[in-house]
Amino acid sequence: MSQEKCKTYVKKDLIEMVSKKTGFSIDQSSRIVEGVLQVILKFLTEADPEVRIEIRGFGSLEVVRASAKPAARNPKTNEVVFVPPHKKVRFKPGKYLYNMLKKS
After folding, report:
1. Residues 40-54 pLDDT 10s
2. What is the CA radius of gyration of the chain?
3. Which of 12-16, 17-21, 65-69 has the lowest mean pLDDT?
4. What is the DSSP string of 7-40?
5. What is the rounded distance in angstroms from the CA atom of residue 66 to the CA atom of residue 92?
6. Whole-model pTM?
7. Can you tell me the distance from the alpha carbon of 78 to that of 96, in angstroms, rounded to the nearest whole number?
8. In CATH terms, is domain 47-104 a member of 4.10.520.10?
9. What angle do CA 35, 38, 42 make, to 5 degrees?
10. Residue-range domain boundaries for the chain
11. Rounded distance, CA 58 to CA 56, Å?
């Protein structure tokens, strides 16, 4: 990341933009955004062992297995630690998003 300050958007910003784009009230938009996020969260957390959520034109979210790392290092303390196997989420942008990011 560059030295410039990164713009951070929060859920409230997403709700406001959905409200503006759809013409729904803030309350309606809030319920829609909350509902969509809860469904995505449910899909990702109940993945056994892996799952993929694909949103055409936007991208895909995948739950993938991460292998154990017997000799990882804590960057703050420089201590060697064991990291057990776990799951993680990977995002891959869709073709449209990828091309839009490439332009800028």
Report:
1. 999 999 878 789 999
2. 18
3. 65-69
4. P---HHHHHHHHHHHH---HHHHHHHHHHHHHHH
5. 17
6. 0.75
7. 41
8. yes
9. 140
10. 1-46, 47-104
11. 5
